[in-house]
């Protein structure tokens, strides 16, 4: 896997992925940025949430659960001093579907966290990562 980061101006950078996608990153106005894009640490949280959500949806589909939506709401705390690594991250999954079994949703989240989500396992070396979920039943 490869990526490329190109300085644009000030503290703005353009990230380009090997799969030909681009994302603009920028700093806050306090850091000399213009708030034109996400902060790099925000992108790490998005990567974690995306990786874990991807796993949860695929696992639930393999379990033949009738899932129609999955949202991961993420909250995190960072260290007060440099390096300001994440110290605590919580993922709250809101899973929508028909006749979803709570034990299957819980198992999918656990499998992602402990076995499949590379981002979660990597970030878990410095941060305590917790999970919970809510099921929304549709008719």
From TrEMBL:
Which Pfam families does the record match to this protein? OsmC
Protein name as it appears in the record: Putative redox protein
Q: Which species does this protein come from?
A: Sulfurirhabdus autotrophica
